[in-house]
Records
---
Amino acid sequence: MLHSEKRSLIRFLVIYLTSTFLLFSLASWIFYTSTKRHLMDKQRDELKYEAKHMQSVLRQLHQSNAPILYYPTFEHIDTAIYNLDRGYIFGSFHSPPALETDISPEILVHVEKVEPYYLGAAYLLTAKKIDFAPLKNLQWSIAMFMLIAGVFFAILGYFLGKLFVAPMRQSIEQMNHFIQDTTHELNTPISTILTNIEMIETFEKCQGANEELKRIEIASRTLSRIYDDLTYLNLNHHYHRKEVTLNMGMLIEERLVYFKGMAEVKGLHVKQEINAHVMLTIDRNDALRLVDNLLSNAIKYNKPGGTLRVVLDMHMLTISDTGIGIREKDMKTILHRFKRANKSEGGFGIGLDIVNQVVKNYGFKLEINSKEDHGTTVRVIW
């Protein structure tokens, strides 16, 4: 799966699963709140029933006229009776609670007025511990439901996401096939043009036409570089890299000669400070793509008569230009494929994407500093 497909799939899954989780969380909270209220009401009704039963016992004691009265007790509840002034008379509590206050958050309390007035008792308080077992079972059931639903919808979301990115994959594959076919068709005429130009220059068969030949050569080299870039993009994921120890100083000087014609046409002043002893372990084609794209951009986006500065030391390669620069709002996306900050200069917007891929493949660091209308400086640090 391509990086763009993975990014789209991950974004879809994040939005899909987040919205699903929030929806189910809201539904579960509403269900839990409603069920909890129902369970608590059920326990309160049981407590009210016990209070009615206690009143019937008090009535029987009142009517019995027994010489010795006893206070009835129950197994699962505590009770207490109070007089008309809400004063405590008797009860089964270890410490008598006040009638106006709740005993504990974990205890249900019910106060009922005794009518008619029995044995000096005007108020009856009944209390019992809340049975949390049904609530814990409810919480466990909801948690298991959320887990099972989460796994189910994650799997469902993954397959939906695959269907979602399928058209994108098909379009990318079609575009890759188109690039592959196009580059294949371009290769033969480009190679033929360059070979014949080199033969003409070697045997000097066309004296007086050097300027025209130079223009043809520049255009041909530009096409050749575009061909190489498109091939690199198309085959990068399957490309077998052969890392060797390269003399970066010699390679950069070689590429400066390659781009000399393009720089001269634009009237650029090329300044170079190249350490000839910088050795770097890298695939030669990757090194070419890295250097060529940085030099090409520095020439393409430079101003006529501007300066191109190339500095190579033991730790980094720095390429600076005095060109049109990059707008601040484009800096965050300038490394994205097909992103072009300035459309007036043409191009495909793949140069810096290729540079970024090479930098990531070898664990280098890429720094881009630019100011609009003042130029750009790119550093590759290893």
---
Amino acid sequence: MATTIAGCTVSRHAETQAVPVSNASRRRLISAKAGHALEILSHAVEYLTDEYVHEAKHLSAHDPQVEAIQILMALNREVYFGCPVMPTFKERLRVLFRFQAL
């Protein structure tokens, strides 16, 4: 099942999806739609986290509020890592020289 946030569709089981380590630290080309979705999700995470802290509850992994925060964070990661990786300078040069050799 999927959810749509600001026009971006994300799967319901985002927390189970792994991201390759090599792509985790690379810059991303974030579309306006994805940027808007990331903004909405980030604000929701911040709001729920602030509310949780102000209520001064004891931290528990099985607390529904903590689970909601974890789901929103997983969706945020899915939207971000769903954006295409920006080519490095070296990769762009390689493509440029390959076209000039033709």
---
Amino acid sequence: MSDALHQPRTRFPEDRTRQIPISLIRGGSMYRVQERVGLVRPRSWDLHRRVPLAVALAWLPLLVLAAVHGGFADLRAVLVDYRVYARVLMAIPLLLVAQVTMDTRFREMAQHFLDANIVRINELSRFHQIMQKTRRLRDAMLPEILVIVAVYLQVGYLLESGRLRFASWAMAAGSNALTPAGYYSVLISQGIFLVLLGIVAWKWVIWVYVLRRMSQLHLQVDATNGDLTGGLGFLSEVPRAFVPVVLAISAVVGATWRSLVLNGQLTLDGLIWPAAVYAALMLAIFFLPLALFLPTLVHEKRLGVRRYGSLQHLVSLQFRRKWTQQRNQHGDDDLLGVPDFSALADLSASLKNVEDMVAYPFRRSVAISFLIALALPLIPVVTTQIPLKEILKGLFDALH
């Protein structure tokens, strides 16, 4: 499938040159390899094949190696290790799902700039330049190489840090040496998770780049738009694409914290500040980029208040002269059918939109979905010291 498809004609003849922007996700060396071997197709992400394959690659050899080296004891230890489940059975599938959500949201975002004529006709050439640059970034080999290098530097740190010493199946009895299952966990299972996370991080960088370049265009926003963000309200839905990413990261973070609490290295009180900082960091990473449009929206609101305020005042003066000061000249017949009244009401509603306009595209429901994705995987951490039954009872009491 080509990177750009012609969109249907609009009522503007010049718009025939407008095109559906390229995908920010479908590209890069790793994607091309998957495409060549048939794991992804141009019109489908084929998650029904990719997710089971990734899970099998990260998990099944781990079970085999644990059983061969340590027998039933090590196999059982792997099967009950919460961290393994969080990384392999939750985080890896969620990061693959995130590729689909990001691809969908990013395409919709870029296309809406064209469909709603937010990009002016005289800015279309710059828009296409942005898309071409984005395609080169998407297909660049160096970022993915750097991701792999960074991942295995992290893997090297894990090998040296001894962070797996609390996993009996990963450490040989009586020594600090890793078992075959331990090596596989660090080099392959952890590697797959970190590579997928690194690719997501690179796509996030591309998204921020597109937002920054788009915010520099002379966009056609309007303060009277009913979304109360000058017509850019659709941007508030884009961070929802990263909810699976946040859920995946939180699953791994929560599993690590749970392990530390169970092993006496941390307490719940000691996790309050790390959890707060973690939540603030996640929200900032995925919501702050939308603030790039703040100067455009602040400028539009300032102009809108002045322009529509002046227009409202002029219309109000004319309405008063016509329907109060000169009322006897017009008579009182059929006042309900006079269009002046509805025109004044419509203009007042438009001015109200201008006054209520905000300079940041934000939607509460999106923030709530992020908070849920942040909190859910952390519940098992809390249940290490507070039974789930008591937590649910407290929530129930708080709602009544």
